[in-house]
Design goal:
Shape: globular
Strand content: 5-15%
Structural class: alpha+beta
Number of helices: 8
Radius of gyration: 20 Å
Distance between the termini: 9 Å
Number of domains: 2
Length: 321
Amino acid sequence: MRYKKPTGPSPTLAITNSILEKLRAGTRPWVRPWREGQGGLPIRENGQRYRGINSLWLWMVADENGFASNRWMTYRQAQSVGGQVRKGERSSIAVFYKQIGTADEEADSDAAADGEGASGIRRVLKSYHVFNCDQIENLPERYAPEPVARMEVSDHKAAIDAFIRASGAQVRHGGDRAFYNPKADTIQLPLPEQFLSYQGYGAVAAHELSHWTGHQSRLDRDLTGRFKSDAYAMEEMIAELAAATIGGELQLPVEHLENHASYIATWIKVLENDERALFTAAAKAEAAADYLLAKAGLGLRNEAEAEGPDIDANEPERLAA
């Protein structure tokens, strides 16, 4: 069988351009963190979670294509367990950093940018090609997607309350605005009954808690950006992506930003000027979500990744017709 070899722009540019296309159309691709029948956040063949930009990207691809499975694998991995990618199916890219220097090793890591540290080790972004299990035939039964079990309303409310309480953040209620005050290190939220649903209250709380993680005593992000500045836009993107990840764990919507068109316009400008900005935001959002989920005892996302992806230099971008 002949294969079509991968061609096109760099993985960072390809992913950034796809996100930009959706933002220009006025939509945020992470606004639906789960849907009925989808198995949740993206995982690798071995069941470990994708992280950073890979999590956001493959999540978006699965939603676009209506995939019920959240599991992805390379062509070779599919063959190794008796599966076969259907003819004509197109692969999706995933990325990782290869460290070149005194310690030559690979890691499925989504740090902000390539670079060389004091040790002389250079980190170079690489990509590989994966297929969703919905694109693969004859897989063993253990790879069948597991639908997300919906919580009872009372259980869902209890889970949201427990998540907020576990953070240890000082949360005040009242008024008609939701925001994090870095100087006072407090979160202000409207009363839960002012929201259309308790899930909506939880989603807004997750967003503001994501900002809260940026305090200098915690993850120490720059929270000084003025409204509509690039720094402000980046912090809002980090909080949105982190809240989307948390929403994937707690089954929360991510539809809470008012006047989001102004945010989108600023995000477009930032991403057009720096194709790696999205990767930076995704990595910092991952850290924020991990921080909060670990406090709530949901820290499975912190488990170690495999040493590296199962990469074959001849992995096809798409099976030949």
